[in-house]
Specification:
Helix content: 25-40%
Strand content: 25-35%
Order of helices and strands: EEHEHEH
Distance between the termini: 22 Å
Number of strands: 4
Strand order of the largest sheet: 1-2-3-4
């Protein structure tokens, strides 16, 4: 997986490309941890994510939990249907914020 990190003002954007799985999840977790203190909103662009495993879900839920504690927000953008179905199956459509 490739992760591109950009920051505009108080918003950090993580553009994800490829597969978000057990191999790439630690890299994403590290990128989120580095970005979170610098911004008030973390956005994940899923337009080019072709697959996501439970390891990816764990990273996203951790980011959401940390953001909630710090009064920040997490937004998932451009989630492709194949990946969105994972959120539907796991019941996370009402837990995470999608745009």
């Amino acid at each position: 997986m490739e992760i591109k990190v950009t920051q505009t003002g108080n918003t950090g954007l993580l553009t994800l490309i490829g597969r978000l799985d057990a191999i790439s999840a630690p890299e994403l977790q590290k990128a989120v941890a580095e970005l979170m203190p610098e911004v008030t909103q973390v956005e994940f662009d899923f337009a080019e994510v072709e697959y996501m495993s439970s390891a990816g879900i764990r990273v996203l839920l951790g980011a959401q939990k940390n953001a909630d504690k710090a009064g920040k927000s997490v937004v998932l953008k451009n989630v492709v249907p194949e990946v969105k179905s994972v959120f539907e199956i796991t019941g996370l459509l009402d837990v995470l914020r999608f745009e």
